[in-house]
Amino acid sequence: MPDTLKAQHIARLTAGYVLYSDMGRVLCSVMEDSVGWHDTITGHGTAAHGRAKYGQGSYQELRNDWHRNTRDNFLVELGKYDLGKRDLVANLNFFVKVVVDDQGTLGFVPGHSPAGGFVELRAEMNTLVVLSNTPHPLDPSPRYAPKPVVLTVRAGAPAGPDDPCRRSRPENARGFTLTESYFAGRI
């Protein structure tokens, strides 16, 4: 996430921007976005955060009401690829808006993402995407109630020279060129 933000001079993601690797390559492009703001700076919840906010309880006790947390969900999924804690990176919180006031305090914006909101990503290179549908750490709701999510994967055309994500920032044009050179074996 740090390279994504500094390369494009942004603090949030929306359509027209891209997600960068730490090598300056474009991982994914944000093609469409009905929400207009996705949080890039506040991270994710942990087991300790969940216990403090929602209370104690195991799966054996709570069954389907068990409170999952993003960090453990990420580690379980990464483990399937022989990856672990050292491979956790700064995450992106889709459908969340967090603002900063004049004193530097982060504030969660409730109701930012209406039902039916969507974001469309295009993978520009082989990318492992790990998703977790859990409450945001700054969400003020005292109730553990993740909203339903639908995920669709389909084939798409690669970015061309007039692609809106490539043209949105001069840095992105260079990022796409670097990514294409990598796949062409020129790097």
Total domain units: 1
End-to-end C-alpha gap: 23 Å
Strand content: 5-15%
**Major β-sheet profile:** 3 strands, antiparallel
Strand order of the largest sheet: 2-3-7
> Strand pairing plus helix content: what structural class?
alpha+beta
Rg, Å, rounded:
18 Å
Q: Any low-confidence stretches, pLDDT <50, length ≥5? A: none
How many DSSP H or I helices?
A: 6
Name the overall outline.
globular
- What's the total count of β strands? 7
What string gives the helices and strands in order?
HEEEEHHHEEEHH
What's the rounded overall pLDDT mean?
93
Which bin fits the share of residues in helices?
25-40%
Task: Give the topology.
Blueprint: H1 2-8, E1 12-13, E2 18-20, E3 26-33, E4 38-39, H2 47-54, H3 59-62, H4 70-79, E5 98-100, E6 106-108, E7 119-123, H5 164-167, H6 170-183
Antiparallel strand pairs: 1-4, 2-3, 3-7, 5-6
Write a concise synopsis of the structure shown:
The chain has 187 residues and is α+β, with helices and mostly antiparallel strands. It contains six helices and seven strands, in the order αββββαααβββαα.
Descriptive report:
With 187 residues, the chain is of the alpha+beta class. The chain has one domain (2-44, 90-182). Helix content is 25%, strand content 14%. The protein is built from six helices and seven strands. The protein has helices at 2-8, 47-54, 59-62, 70-79, 164-167, 170-183, and strands spanning 12-13, 18-20, 26-33, 38-39, 98-100, 106-108, 119-123. Strands 2-3-7 form a three-stranded antiparallel sheet. Strands 1-4 form a two-stranded antiparallel ribbon. The longest helix has 14 residues, at 170-183. The model has no long low-confidence stretch (mean pLDDT 93).
